[in-house]
Amino acid sequence: MKVRVELTRRPEIADPQGTTIKRALEDLNFTGVTSVRVDKVFHLEIEADDPEDVRKKVGEMCQQLLANPVLEDFEIEIEG
Amino acid sequence: MRTAVVAFPGSNCEHDVVRAIEGLGGEAALVWHRETDLSGFDGVVLPGGFAHGDALRTGAIARFSPIMDAVISAAEEGKPVLGICNGFQILCEAGLLPGALIANRELAFICRYVEVEVVDTDSILTRQARSGQVLRIPLNSYEGNWIDPSGTGRVLMRYVSDPNGSSGRAAAVGNEAGNVVGIMPHPERATDLLLGSEDGKTLLDGFLHSLTAA
């Protein structure tokens, strides 16, 4: 089963990389970009049949390891 | 009184820490991260470097190294636990210190001496220093920008001039009891005038005195 996990940095947490990229876009004369945030995506392949079991398991993975709860929220998408 | 200096794959300051402690008359031994027992030690240092290659996030994998259960137990027993640089990042990931360390504000790896001011002397690291004392210590990090949305971290030392965006200009942070401390600059690299400063001695001396008192 293919699973996509997206980590999103909480809005109140600074993103120095996003800020730098936004500046670079301005330097290239791309106007109107008001915000750039850089996030992280994992693509997992898991041997399993039940999507709900997979969702639960990946949720535990996120809480224990993949996400830092101080910085990030996570979203799990079962891609089939 | 013996200090365990934990070596993770990718640590690179463990020998410096052992040498600095021995130079101050203390006793220190390297402990591989696969070990699980720290009962023969009175304190623990997690040294700087790039444990597990910083994969995923700094400290994220190291936090699950087999030795970490013993480190967490030592912290709960009130033993001195000091994380330097990458060790600071590991302590945050392990939940022994609040907050997290993210990339420096200017996205530059900073490698230079910085001045840090002691603002709280009630900890294993700062107990031998004076409040207001300014120390000159090398900073050597990319993810040195400490953020603490919980607002519960105790800032023990502040950068005199903000180098990396760290919350409250924090250079060193402690838990409530003051026995778990993370510091981003490297006191072990400031223990000999030949290397430019020996201001780190005051801090490591405090750590060694804490072992005796524990």
What report would you give on this structure?
The complex is a heterodimer of chains A (80) and B (214). Chain A is of the alpha+beta class. Chain A contains 2 helices and 3 strands; from the N terminus they run βαβαβ. In chain A, strands 2-1-3 form a 3-stranded antiparallel beta sheet, with helices on one face. Chain A is elongated, with a radius of gyration of 16 Å. Chain A starts with a strand and ends with a strand. The mean pLDDT of chain A is 95. In chain B, strand 10 and strand 11 form a beta hairpin. Chain B is globular, with a radius of gyration of 15 Å. In chain B, strands 2-1-3-4-11-10-9-6-7 form a 9-stranded mixed beta sheet, sandwiched between helices. Chain B has a two-stranded antiparallel ribbon with strand order 5-8. By secondary structure, chain B is of the alpha/beta class. Helices cover 19% and strands 27% of the residues of chain B. Chain B has helices at residues 14-23, 68-76, 86-93, 200-213, and strands spanning 2-7, 27-32, 43-46, 81-84, 100-102, 110-118, 134-141, 145-147, 154-159, 170-174, 180-183. The N and C termini of chain B lie close together (10 Å). Chain B contains 4 helices and 11 strands, in the order βαββαβαβββββββα. The A-B interface holds A 10, 12-14, 16-17, 20, 65-66, 68, 70-71 and B 56-57, 60-61, 64, 92-93, 98-100, 102-107, 145, 147, 149-150, 165.
